[in-house]
């Protein structure tokens, strides 16, 4: 009873704190940076991480097994993983607004986990035979950590595309307002080709260019880390499947979508090896991966089919 109450309190505290943090981050993003608000948001992220950590530990002690056996527990662990990634920029000396982009995912996962949709899963139950294995910690933790990193990295790529697209539209509208002939435009382009970068990054464009470079840099690094976790998770899952079901790969819906996810981000990393395709081109592939991850993570749970259907949930009805 005590553990259940403590779990309920920690869950709602973490959700409330994250909601306040995203509000503060948006204020900092839209207005000039305020040191007090930035420090408050930093403390809020740390508080959220502590609450989610306490929630996982409480759940572990109460259920007597690693809290990764169903959708509710995996969502809490996903929120914990996202919180770690969300805190990384705070350890950097320079302040940036990457946290304002990743924070909504933390709110969504925590909000969905604490909503009425998963009420029946809040109570811990005995593990099904398929999950009573030492591979549970290795496989599921690596997969969820991989999902968290890939979600954050691909979301940064989505932001990169949006900002770049808006900048292109703004430059296009500005060029239409100029009354130049085709010959004059061609002459200017040829003469000022060397000075283009200098004029482009002047004033506000300098800050925007720096921010886009940060998005591209961090997106690549986080996705690379997530890809490693996902690869380890798939390999350990194959070994576990051979022990539990007698086959390394069964083309189960979950396995199939995990393979599709791995393929998409493998393509992304391959594209990144070409310097000419960095930036928007690779970000488009990562943006596709953002949607595929959610299909992989929630798809089987919504359908409730396949060998991984133990994590499925049913909507509560009055």
Automatic annotation (TrEMBL):
<dbReference type="InterPro" id="IPR017562">
    <property type="entry name" value="Cyt_c_biogenesis_CcsA"/>
</dbReference>
<feature type="transmembrane region" description="Helical">
    <location>
        <begin position="12"/>
        <end position="32"/>
    </location>
</feature>
<feature type="transmembrane region" description="Helical">
    <location>
        <begin position="138"/>
        <end position="165"/>
    </location>
</feature>
<keyword id="KW-0201">Cytochrome c-type biogenesis</keyword>
<feature type="transmembrane region" description="Helical">
    <location>
        <begin position="98"/>
        <end position="118"/>
    </location>
</feature>
<dbReference type="Pfam" id="PF01578">
    <property type="entry name" value="Cytochrom_C_asm"/>
</dbReference>
<keyword id="KW-1133">Transmembrane helix</keyword>
<feature type="transmembrane region" description="Helical">
    <location>
        <begin position="256"/>
        <end position="271"/>
    </location>
</feature>
<dbReference type="GO" id="GO:0017004">
    <property type="term" value="P:cytochrome complex assembly"/>
</dbReference>
<keyword id="KW-0812">Transmembrane</keyword>
<feature type="transmembrane region" description="Helical">
    <location>
        <begin position="74"/>
        <end position="91"/>
    </location>
</feature>
<comment type="subunit">
    <text>May interact with Ccs1.</text>
</comment>
<protein>
    <recommendedName>
        <fullName>Cytochrome c biogenesis protein CcsA</fullName>
    </recommendedName>
</protein>
<feature type="transmembrane region" description="Helical">
    <location>
        <begin position="283"/>
        <end position="307"/>
    </location>
</feature>
<comment type="function">
    <text>Required during biogenesis of c-type cytochromes (cytochrome c6 and cytochrome f) at the step of heme attachment.</text>
</comment>
<keyword id="KW-0793">Thylakoid</keyword>
<keyword id="KW-0150">Chloroplast</keyword>
<dbReference type="GO" id="GO:0020037">
    <property type="term" value="F:heme binding"/>
</dbReference>
<keyword id="KW-0934">Plastid</keyword>
<keyword id="KW-0472">Membrane</keyword>
<dbReference type="GO" id="GO:0005886">
    <property type="term" value="C:plasma membrane"/>
</dbReference>
<dbReference type="InterPro" id="IPR045062">
    <property type="entry name" value="Cyt_c_biogenesis_CcsA/CcmC"/>
</dbReference>
<feature type="transmembrane region" description="Helical">
    <location>
        <begin position="44"/>
        <end position="62"/>
    </location>
</feature>
<comment type="similarity">
    <text>Belongs to the CcmF/CycK/Ccl1/NrfE/CcsA family.</text>
</comment>
<dbReference type="InterPro" id="IPR002541">
    <property type="entry name" value="Cyt_c_assembly"/>
</dbReference>
<dbReference type="GO" id="GO:0042651">
    <property type="term" value="C:thylakoid membrane"/>
</dbReference>
<feature type="domain" description="Cytochrome c assembly protein">
    <location>
        <begin position="68"/>
        <end position="308"/>
    </location>
</feature>
<feature type="transmembrane region" description="Helical">
    <location>
        <begin position="218"/>
        <end position="241"/>
    </location>
</feature>
